[in-house]
């Protein structure tokens, strides 16, 4: 089975390199994703990337990562349908999720529920040190269930997260 990691970036992370570079650095999301793809390939892992400013799109992508996706229309059965038992069809499953939820960290029960519902190990990632910033940034809806939390390492945090997820997947799958 090919090991696959899904890297999700939440709201405003498409502005990395432009938005508050004194906090988030000058590396763009395009640069981060290019480096992440190269690193994953060197580790023999397939990497998928996804960024959205919309909570529901992130929830949909997390559900897809589990191998299930909502049908576009629940009124018309299709060949991919499960016979009306939830209106979902089967997709490929990922081995791990790395998520930088951005501002959704502090407010999204929906994304938390999606992550818990799919039961895929996930790493919570933040470019800045959220514990050295505003008090409200110290609360995360994800950290208590994450396999690991990486913050304050800048763009390098993505490399650390991929390395950790790759190692964690090998251990979980019995390769080591």
UniProtKB/TrEMBL annotation:
Catalytic activity: 3-dehydroquinate = 3-dehydroshikimate + H2O
Pfam short name (any one): DHquinase_II
Transition state stabilizer, annotated site positions: 19
Residue ranges that the Swiss-Prot or TrEMBL entry lists as coiled coil: none
Pathways involved: Aromatic compound metabolism; 3,4-dihydroxybenzoate biosynthesis; 3,4-dihydroxybenzoate from 3-dehydroquinate: step 1/2
Active site: 24, 126
Keywords, comma-separated and alphabetical: Lyase, Quinate metabolism
Binding of substrate, residues: 100, 106, 113, 127-128, 137
Gene Ontology BP annotations: 3,4-dihydroxybenzoate biosynthetic process; quinate catabolic process
PANTHER family assigned: CATABOLIC 3-DEHYDROQUINASE
Family named by the database record: Belongs to the type-II 3-dehydroquinase family.
Function: Is involved in the catabolism of quinate. Allows the utilization of quinate as carbon source via the beta-ketoadipate pathway.
Protein name per its UniProtKB record: Catabolic 3-dehydroquinase
């Amino acid at each position: 089975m090919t090991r696959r990691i899904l890297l999700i970036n939440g709201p405003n992370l498409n502005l990395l390199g432009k938005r508050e570079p004194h906090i988030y650095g000058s590396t763009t999301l395009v640069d981060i994703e290019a480096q992440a793809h190269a690193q994953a390939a060197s580790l023999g892992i397939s990497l998928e990337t996804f960024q959205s400013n919309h909570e529901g799109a992130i929830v949909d992508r997390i559900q897809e990562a589990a191998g299930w996706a909502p049908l576009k229309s629940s009124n018309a059965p299709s060949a991919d349908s499960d016979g009306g038992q939830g209106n979902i069809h089967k997709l490929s499953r990922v081995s791990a999720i790395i998520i930088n939820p951005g501002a959704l960290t502090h407010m999204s029960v929906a994304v938390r529920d999606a992550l818990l519902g799919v039961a895929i190990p996930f790493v919570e990632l933040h470019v800045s040190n959220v514990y050295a910033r505003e008090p409200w940034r110290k609360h995360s809806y994800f950290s208590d269930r994450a396999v690991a939390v990486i913050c304050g390492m800048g763009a390098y945090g993505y490399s650390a997260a991929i390395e950790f997820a790759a190692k964690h997947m090998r251990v979980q799958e019995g390769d080591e």
